[in-house]
Amino acid sequence: MEKSTYLTTHPTNLYDFIHLSVMLLDLIPTYTDEKKGSLRDVWAKSIEELSRDQDQKKILSFLCKCGIIAIDEKDKKVHVGVPNEFVLLQVKKFFHKGLKKAISVSYNPQFTLDYHVYTPFQRPNNDLQIDMKKLLKIKLPKQEAKELKNNTSQSSKLASQFGIKISPHYTFNNFVTGAHNNFALSAAKAVAETPGKVYNPLFIYGSVGLGKTHLMHAIANHILQNSPDRNVLYLPATKLIDEIISAIRKNKLNNLMRVFDDIDVLLIDDVQFLADKDKTQEIFHNIFNEFHMKNKQVILTSDRPPKELNNIEARLKSRFALWLVADIQKPDYETRIAILQSKLAAKGESIWFDLLTIIAKSIKNNVRELEGALNIIMTRKTITGMELSEKDMFDCLKTLGYKVDNEDKQVIREITQMNTRSIMSYTKIVEFVATYYNISVEDLKSPKRKKAITQARQMLMVIAKKHFSWTLERIGDYFGGKNHATVIYALNNFTKKIKHDKNLSHDYNVVMEQLER
User: Fold this and answer.
1) First-residue to last-residue Cα distance in the chain
2) pLDDT digits (tens, 9 = 90+) for 22-79
3) Which domains, from first to last, does the chain contain?
4) CB neighbours (10 Å) of residue 124?
5) What is the DSSP letter of 124?
6) Which of 175, 324, 297, 281 minimizes the C-alpha distance to 232?
7) pTM strictly above 0.70
8) Are the CB atoms for 444 and 435 separated by under 8 Å?
9) What residues contact 163, with CB distance under 8 A and at least 6 apart?
C-alpha cells in the first residue's frame, strides 16, 4: 500500500494534542473513499495480526467500534479512534502493546500509537470501521451450539436419561473475564484441559447470577469437544436429590450407582441444597469417594464456601475443600460494561455507550440480571423499530424492580438498597466552591485560565463526573461549551495533581465534606 501523508501537523505539547484531537474530527469528513479504504485496510491487517496473540471475542467486544482515523507520516504516528472514554481506557490497558506490535508488523515498525475519542464511532456503519466479526471469522453462539449439538458421545445419552442437558451456549469464549472471576476461570480451564489430574475436586462459590453455572457448562463443553469419548454429567443438586429419592423408592439404587460408575466427569450445581438431606448426603459421600479414588473429575458449585455450608455433614464439607476452592465476586463497573458489550456483540447489535452506563451503574450484583435487562431492551427495540432512549432504559429498570427518581438529575437505586446519604444539588456545590476560592460562578463558566479558576473548574468537573454521573458532553456544556477533549484533560489532570499537591487535596476534602452533609 502506498503510504500517503494523511496528516502533516503534529503536537508539540499537551495543549496542542487536545487541539489535534479536535482537528482530526474536522479532517475525517473530507477523506476520499480511497483514503478511507486505505485506513480500513491498515486497521484490518493490524487486527488480524493482533488476533494471533489475543482472544478474538475480547477483540470483538472492545475494538469492534474502533478504527484508524489518521496516519501521520511526518511524526510517524497512527491515530486510532475509539467511541468513548471507557473503551479508551480498556484499549490502553489490554491492547496497547499488542496493537503497537500489530501496527509494526502490518504497517511500519517506526510508528507509534495515539488514541482519540471519536464519537461517530458510537453509531453503526461508520466509513472508517470494518466488519470485525467477518474479518475474524467469529462464530455466532448459534453456530457454536450447532457444532456442540452434533456430539454423539455417551454424555448425550446420560443427559437424556436424567433430563438435564449441557447448554452449548455457555463456553469459555463468551465468558467475560475480570478481576472478580479470573481465578475461578483459570482453574476451570485447567480442569477442562486435564480432567481428573489437577484441582480435583474443584469447588466454585459465589452469589446468585455471577456465572458459576456458565463455568460449569463451559468446562463440560470444552471436555466434550476435545475428548468426546469421556462421559460427562451435569446435574443441579436438586435433580441429584430427586434421582436418589426415586431410586430408593423404586428399590433401584444399585442401578443408579452403576450409572455413576460409567461417568468420567461429574458436575453438581448448587450443593448447598443438599442441606438436611441426610440419606442423599450419605449416598453422595460414597459417590464422591469413588470418583476421587479413581481420579475421575468432580466439579461443585455453591453460593458459599464449604466451611459455611449449613446442615451438611462435616466429612462432606472437608472433602469439598480437599483441593481447590475458588470464588466469583461481584463484577466491577468496567466488567459490567464489558459483559453488556460482549452480549451485544454476540447478538450483532449495538447500543449507545451512555445508555449502557445506565444499566451498568444500576445492576451491580447479578450478571444474569444484566443479561435479562439487555434482552428486555433489545425486545423493545425490535417491537418498536425505533432507536433506544434513556426512558427505555429507565422503564426496563422499573420492570426489573429498580426505582427511578426524577429530580435535578435521574438517579437509579435498588429498592432494597436505597441510598440514604443526603447529597446537595450540583448548583449548590458550584456556589460553595466559587465562594471557597473567592471567585464567581460566571468565572468558572468562562474561558478564563487563572490558576484558581482552572483548579476550581477542574475539581467541579471531577465531582460532576464521579458523584453526579454527568456525561462529558453535559459537563462541557455547563462550563461554557468546553469540548470533549478539554473535559477529559481536566478530569485526568486534576486526578493526577491531587495525589501530589497537599493543599489541593485539602481543598478537595473540604468540598467533599460539604457535599456529603
Assistant:
1) 62
2) 556 556 767 888 888 888 888 998 998 888 777 777 788 788 888 998 888 888 889 9
3) 14-136 (3.30.300.180), 169-327 (3.40.50.300), 348-417 (1.10.8), 426-515 (1.10.1750.10)
4) 11
5) S
6) 297
7) no
8) no
9) 239
